[in-house]
Amino acid sequence: MSQEFREFVRKVGSGTHTHQDLTRSEMHRAMTLMLTQQATPAQVGAFLIAHRIKRPTGAELAGMLDAYAEWGPKLPEIAAAQPVVVLTQPYDGRDRTMPLSPLTALVLASAGFPVLQHGGERMPTKEGLPLVAVWQALGVDWRRYSLTQVHGIMATIGLGFVYLPHHFPQAEALVPYRREIGKRPPIATLELLWVPYQGDYHLMSGFVHPPTEQMMRTALTLRGVAEFTTVKGLEGSCDLPQDRTAIIGCGGRERLLLKPQEYGLGGANIPLADGLTQMTAVLQGECVPLRTALLWNAGFYLWRLGAVENLAQGIHQTATLLDQQRVAQYLQKLVALANGT
Prior knowledge:
By secondary structure, the protein is α/β, with parallel strands linked by helices. The protein has helices at residues 3-12, 24-35, 41-54, 58-71, 101-110, 131-138, 147-157, 164-167, 169-172, 176-181, 187-193, 210-222, 272-283, 289-304, 311-323, 326-340, and strands at residues 84-87, 115-119, 159-163, 201-206, 228-231, 246-250, 254-258.
């Protein structure tokens, strides 16, 4: 048993009226003790469920990110004209709506914006479809590559994926606790903010509940992250919805309320099963339902990243990239490069 970690459990697990928030440095130390398995399984489980009940603070999330920055993998900086775009999604995946970010990543990369994603396999508590499975369906199995190979692919073509089971086994070892405690621990929020990259980047992070967004903003500000975007997205991802107004935070400066109906792109969100069968068609420029979702998402991100002057132009540019087969050609190059690595 770790006496040091026992004190952290006591602080966060003392009840509604007597619990104490950890400082950023204390949370950094607590996360380190979990990653290095110096805390016992009983202590880790107790801490994670108590911390969920208490709710993390922005300073605690910053401390957790400090530990991930210290112990996790870091892709070296690549030579690129634009900061790397980091598109995140809850690690426990999707079970209702189509994950759009891999397709969005292809559009952005074909327009000259390098993109990085990260994640693992099906994960408690949701056990939804993970991003790595969507990429596999597109012809790229990111499970195969070492971190050095991922860096090589990213440096060559501008797209990469950090795969938790191989590239960060210390964090992967904490995954079974999610099933045992039956709830998402605060680590799930941490994963939306983690950036395993050493160069300049622009983080795109989704959220569900407004208090979570504020915690995220506080954590990123404490860590000196200037360029980030928060999206009240589909199932906690950074995918913009089509059935409601998209609520978007642009760092600490501005909030956007975007209505897809004003651009002719409103409607029902694409169901998971339907979206998976339409990926090839949408990349070939066909007018399947998935196309409107991709136009809405990639068009927004092109605008947010400064590639165009307004959202309508971003939507138009996305349509042009699809119709001219530039996104499909980019994917072919990525698949050829990845298979030759």
